[in-house]
Amino acid sequence: MTPTHRVDPTDRAVLDAWHAVGFLETLAAGPTHTRLLGVGLTIQRTADGTVQIRAEGHDTPLPVAERYGCLWTSLGTPPATPLAIPEADEPDRRLVCCGSIDVHASGLRVIENFLDMAHFPFVHTNILGAEPQTEVLRYHTEWRRDVDEVWATDCRFHQPQAALSAAGGQDTGYIYRVASPFVTLLYKTCPNDALRPDVIALFVQPTEPERCRAHPVMFLIDELSAQADLIQFQQKIFLQDRIILENQRPRLLPLDARAEIPTRADSLSVTYRRWLKEKQVQYGATQTLPTS
């Protein structure tokens, strides 16, 4: 029997957020089933082409949005639309939906790993980083309270192959944006356009406190690479991360500042955790100090 770990009704930052629950291109003609925040969902495309999502035990349909190649819903009262990604509307960008991946770890852990540059040389060796160039240079992190998002700017890292289309190593510029507890984006130097960055988004669907489904999406300026090769490149990187994520303990993300000792390179992680704590996020997090 599947364990049920429903979200606490007071966890409004999680309940009232939009969550991606799958890719539109994989939506079946008949009913499909998934989970969100410990609740079973049934997804059905109706005769007129619209999509309805119902939570188990409830007849009233949930909010639905179709954006960025994904199907979105919420168990609470979300904003009018999911987050805005202006670059997604640029006509020469390619939308690349990279496949959903199940991870036996908190969705918050998955987001935090996405924000971490320090692991590049050791986990994504000869792709996103390589020894001996392991230093994470100082960068700027801020909580933009006007939009209630966490951003990191002035990030730079030398990468042997920053993108599939990269011809060689490059010093890659990064900007990170955390738009909601389970949604984050990366704007990175594009090998094919000196002025506009590639955009990589990670939409995480928290299914249980210690389990999630990751939906990576890319908005690329790349006219030449085959779609299948782009997907394979991104999946290779994410599957390398999954090995690390599923071996982290605790599986929940600790929000107590005493739980783990940060370094200068962890500035973004520290800000993310403080942001979650102030928003009183509970699902996928723990305030308990790990025991030895």
TrEMBL record:
Swiss-Prot/TrEMBL keywords: Dioxygenase, Oxidoreductase
InterPro entries linked to this entry: Cholesterol_7-desaturase, VanA_C_cat
Domain Vanillate O-demethylase oxygenase-like C-terminal catalytic: 104-278
MF terms in GO: dioxygenase activity
Zinc found in the keyword field: no
PANTHER family, per the entry: 3-KETOSTEROID-9-ALPHA-MONOOXYGENASE, OXYGENASE COMPONENT, IRON-SULFUR DOMAIN CONTAINING PROTEIN
Protein name: Aromatic ring-hydroxylating dioxygenase subunit alpha
Organism: Gluconacetobacter asukensis
Lineage: Bacteria, Pseudomonadati, Pseudomonadota, Alphaproteobacteria, Acetobacterales
